[in-house]
Amino acid sequence: MQITDVRVRKVTKEGKMKAVVSITLDNEFVVHDIKVIEGEKGLFIAMPSRKAADGEYRDIAHPINSETRERIQSIILEKYEIAALESEEAAF
């Protein structure tokens, strides 16, 4: 599986959520609404989720193993950092 496209939409309001991302897998499948979150230990991703009847949030789509999650997170955060730098440069 290859991540063939990453689209970053930065969130302009203050808060822990920094961006919403869509990824394309193998030019055939898209996952929308992956969130880039600023946590206590730095940036991380949160997969798309839905609030269940019991009030808990459950992922709608997610990697099956930690290696895949790490690979997806690494690529997303790399693209997020590039987008953040470009927006800072555009502000000047």
Give structural attributes:
alpha+beta, 4-stranded antiparallel sheet, two-stranded antiparallel sheet, 1 helix, 28% helix, 42% strand
Number of beta strands: 6
Sum up the overall morphology in one term: globular
The largest sheet is: 4 strands, antiparallel
The name of the CATH architecture is 2-Layer Sandwich
In which range does the helix fraction lie?
Answer: 25-40%
Strand residue percentage: 35-45%
The whole-angstrom Rg is: 14 Å
Q: What topology, given as strand order, has the largest sheet?
A: 1-2-3-4
* Helix-strand string: EEEEEEH
Describe the structure.
With 92 residues, the chain is an alpha+beta fold. The protein has one domain (3-90): Stage V sporulation protein G (Arylsulfatase, C-terminal domain). It has 1 helix and 6 strands, in the order ββββββα. The chain has a 4-stranded antiparallel beta sheet with strand order 1-2-3-4, covered by helices on one side. It has a two-stranded antiparallel sheet with strand order 5-6. Strand 5 (49-51) and strand 6 form a beta hairpin.
Helices and strands in order, then pairings?
Elements: E1 3-10, E2 17-25, E3 29-39, E4 42-46, E5 49-51, E6 57-59, H1 66-91
Antiparallel strand pairs: 1-2, 2-3, 3-4, 5-6
Q: What is the gist of this entry?
A:
Belongs to the SpoVG family. This protein has 92 residues and is of the alpha+beta class. It is built from one helix and six strands; from the N terminus they run ββββββα.
